[in-house]
From TrEMBL:
InterPro entries: HINT, Histidine_triad_HIT, HIT-like, HIT-like_sf. This is HIT family protein. Residues 5-112 form the HIT domain. A motif (Histidine triad motif) lies at residues 97-101. CDD domains: HINT_subgroup. Pfam families: HIT. It comes from the Bacteria. It comes from Streptococcus oricebi.
Amino acid sequence: MTDCIFCKIVDGEIPAAKVYEDQNLLAFLDISQVTPGHTLLIPKKHVRNVLEMDAVSASQLFEAVPDLARKIMKATGALGMNIINNNEEVAGQTVFHAHVHLAPRYGADDDLKISFLSHEPDFEKLASLAEKIQQTEV
């Protein structure tokens, strides 16, 4: 894809600080560096996001995550790791080429803030939604 910044990185048109590469995948440091060592892992073949990936491509992408995360943590001395994948604009995707963020964590006061709001569970609604998901064909 000609206008995709990640495709341009794969093609060598834009420089990147690469941390891992094989025939299908490329990992490089995110230029934003939300936390030191913030890395993006992408498939070399353009695909919009994980929702559009086939099982083989998704398997290749996610199979590389654990080793890469461990390497990043060891190299940076991080205490933890957020592994984030955003799909579509409403979910925070800003570059429409599938990618996984590996964001090392150093403490509660580092620059990455993620929070979830708790809700009282409605077990009837949960059961209904679970059944709907189970019965949905894709």
